[in-house]
TrEMBL record:
Key words of the record: Membrane, Transmembrane, Transmembrane helix
Lineage: Bacteria, Bacillati, Actinomycetota, Actinomycetes, Micromonosporales
Alphabetized Pfam families for the sequence: ABC2_membrane_6
Protein's name in the database: ABC-2 type transport system permease protein
Transmembrane portions of the chain: 17-35, 47-68, 80-99, 165-184, 196-214, 252-273
RNA-binding is among the record's keywords: no
Organism: Actinoplanes teichomyceticus
Keyword Transcription: no
Length: 286
C-alpha cells in the first residue's frame, strides 16, 4: 500500500484531479509531437486542400452568380468563399476520414495492451486526437485560409463574439468527429473487421457533414432533420456557418450549444460501448 501511495503521489502531488489533468495534457502533447514527424505528408495535404479549395470556391461562386438575388440559401459571395476556405482548412482538423487505428488494434488483438494501461482507451485516444487537431490547426488550417484571403473576398467577422464562438465550435467539432470515429471503429469488437462501417462513414460524413456543399441548400425539413437527428452537421457545417456569420448571434450560440450536446452524448455513448466491449472480451477470454 505504501508503494502504491508513493506512486500516486509521484504522478499527482496535489490530488487526483491535477494528476488526471497532467496526464491528459501529456497525452495531448504526445499526439501533437507525433504528427510533427509527418512533414512531407503535411505539405502535400495542405497543397491538395488549396487546389480543391480553388475548384470548390469557383463552383459555389458560379452558383451564387446564377441564383436569384445572388444569395443561394442566404449566403452572399463573400460568405460562400469563406465557407469554402474555412472548410478546406478544417477538413484535416476535424479529420472526417483516415482514422482506423482502434479498429486495426482490435483486429490484431493489440487492444489488449491498451486495456492494461492505467489510462482508459477512450481517454487516451481523445487526448491524442486533440493533440493531432492542434497540430493540424497550425499547419493545415492557416495556409489554406491565408491563400483564400489573398485570392478571394472573404467575409471579415463583424461581431466580436464570432471569433471565440468559432474557436469553441471547432473544438466541439473535433470532439464530435472523434466520438463518431471511435464508435465506428469500435464496431470491430463485434464484427472483427470494421472496414464496412468505416467505408459507410467515409461516404456519408462528407456529404451529410457539409463538406461538399452547404446543407442549407437542401430543403428546410431535410436540413433541420439532419441537424437535429444526426451529429454530422455539427462536424463541419456548424463551425463554417459560425465563421461565415451566416446567422445572427442567438442562432450562432444555439448551433454551438447543439454541438456541445452532441459531443457529450457521443462521448457518453462511446464510454458505454467501450465498457460493453471489454466485458465481451472477458467472456471470450481476451
Amino acid at each position: 500500500m505504501a508503494g502504491k501511495d508513493a506512486s500516486v503521489l509521484t504522478i499527482s502531488p496535489s490530488g487526483p484531479l491535477r494528476g488526471w489533468a497532467t496526464t491528459f495534457g501529456a497525452l495531448i502533447g504526445s499526439g501533437f509531437r507525433r504528427y510533427t514527424t509527418y512533414r512531407q505528408a503535411t505539405i502535400a495535404g495542405t497543397f491538395t486542400n488549396i487546389v480543391f479549395g480553388y475548384l470548390r470556391c469557383y463552383v459555389l461562386l458560379a452558383v451564387a452568380a446564377g441564383a436569384v438575388g445572388a444569395r443561394p440559401a442566404g449566403y452572399d459571395a463573400a460568405q460562400l468563399a469563406t465557407y469554402v476556405w474555412l472548410g478546406q482548412g478544417l477538413l484535416s482538423v476535424v479529420m472526417l476520414w483516415g482514422w482506423s487505428e482502434l479498429a486495426e488494434r482490435i483486429r490484431t488483438g493489440d487492444v489488449a495492451a491498451d486495456l492494461l494501461r492505467p489510462v482508459p482507451p477512450l481517454t487516451a485516444y481523445l487526448a491524442a486526437d486533440l493533440g493531432r487537431a492542434g497540430h493540424a490547426m497550425l499547419t493545415r488550417f492557416i495556409p489554406p485560409v491565408l491563400v483564400g484571403a489573398l485570392c478571394f473576398p472573404l467575409r471579415t467577422p463583424t461581431r466580436w463574439q464570432t471569433v471565440p464562438l468559432f474557436l469553441l465550435s471547432v473544438l466541439l467539432a473535433v470532439v464530435v468527429s472523434f466520438g463518431c470515429r471511435y464508435l465506428v471503429n469500435a464496431t470491430a469488437y463485434w464484427l472483427q473487421d470494421a472496414r464496412g462501417p468505416i467505408m459507410l462513414w467515409v461516404l456519408g460524413a462528407g456529404v451529410l457533414g457539409g463538406l461538399y456543399f452547404p446543407l442549407r441548400l437542401l430543403p428546410d425539413w431535410l436540413a433541420v432533420g439532419l441537424w437535429l437527428g444526426t451529429p454530422l452537421p455539427s462536424i463541419l457545417q456548424t463551425p463554417l456557418d459560425v465563421g461565415a456569420e451566416r446567422d445572427g448571434p442567438v442562432m450562432q450560440l444555439g448551433l454551438v450549444g447543439l454541438q456541445a450536446g452532441w459531443a457529450v452524448l457521443l462521448l457518453a455513448l462511446a464510454a458505454v460501448v467501450q465498457r460493453r466491449a471489454e466485458r465481451r472480451l472477458v467472456v471470450q477470454g481476451g
